[in-house]
Specification:
- The protein is of the alpha+beta class.
- The protein has eight helices and eight strands.
- The strands form two sheets. The chain has a five-stranded antiparallel β-sheet. A three-stranded antiparallel β-sheet has the order 6-7-8.
- The radius of gyration is 23 Å and the shape is elongated.
- This is LytTR family transcriptional regulator.
- GO terms for molecular function: DNA binding.
Length: 270
């Protein structure tokens, strides 16, 4: 996979910041490090005394845990934006990110351990780390990024006929107020894109779509909504389609929403 753009890493940091501030996250990492320190896997039980072993494993987990969390989450977002469901995307991103994490672990081992302190060879250790990363990533996703239990939405309030400003704009900074371009679901956040920029808000995607009125738009994917007047072009991609927006970005159209795009006149019927 291509290197992750800095902008995507920054966006991921903004999304995962609440999790990084959650004591459960750090308590879980510390607890895992202590358990591994006591258990002494990969030959460290026989080759390292208790205190150095505890220090090694807690340090290793506290370093690699947040790094892997950030990289895996960023990769999962890209996979989800391409249409892959959340849990398969988590498993695949965990597998992919196990490779740089394995490289980091091997580098730290070379700095702080003597040869033979870890019983596994480098290749075997790397495979074990990839397996653990692929296993842990979906668990972390379920714990920290499952949609919250929310009460049923209240009956929608109809906007005044003479109002042209979507209520959704009140939730983003004033310097980003402008015509809506698109909405994208990212976990239980929604990214609001206007002609002035973009901003993520903690709001259920369906509620954000409701608050986009009176802007005329179309839900083209379970994670994407676009304003009709911001669609520049649309093209077919097999059974699916892709729309290009006026800001130059592209959004996937799922098979179930292609018909709506045809009916809106943006794609010729088959």
């Amino acid at each position: 996979m291509a290197l992750l753009p800095v902008s995507e890493l920054e966006a991921s940091i903004a999304v995962i910041r609440p999790a990084l501030r959650d004591l459960r996250f750090w308590a879980g990492l510390l607890g895992l490090g202590l358990v591994l320190g006591v258990a002494g896997p990969f030959g460290t039980l026989d080759n390292l005394p208790l205190l150095p072993r505890l220090a090694y494993w807690t340090t290793m987990i506290l370093i690699t845990g947040p790094v892997g969390f950030l990289l895996s989450h960023t990769t999962r977002r890209r996979l989800q934006s391409a249409g892959l469901p959340r849990l398969p995307a988590s498993f695949l991103s965990g597998t992919l990110m196990g490779l740089p994490i394995a490289a980091l672990v091997l580098g730290l081992n070379a700095l702080f351990l003597d040869p033979g302190d870890v019983a596994l060879g480098e290749g075997e250790l790397a495979l074990a780390i990839v397996f653990l990363s692929a296993t842990v990533s979906p668990v972390i996703t379920l714990i920290f990024f499952s949609p919250p239990d929310l009460p049923p939405p209240a009956a929608p309030t109809h906007a005044r006929a003479d109002s042209a400003t979507p209520r959704l704009l009140r939730r983003i900074p004033a310097d980003l107020h402008g015509p809506l371009v698109a909405l994208t679901a990212i976990d239980h956040y929604t990214e609001v894109v206007t002609t002035k920029g973009r901003h993520q808000i903690l709001l259920r995607f369906s509620d954000a779509v409701a608050e986009s009125a009176p802007t005329l738009g179309l839900r083209i994917h379970r994670s994407h909504w676009v304003a009709l007047d911001q669609i520049a072009t649309a093209r077919r991609d097999g059974l699916r389609a892709i729309v290009t927006l006026t800001d130059g970005s592209e959004r996937p159209v799922s098979r179930t929403h292609v018909l709506a795009l045809e009916q809106a006149g943006y794609l010729p019927p088959r």
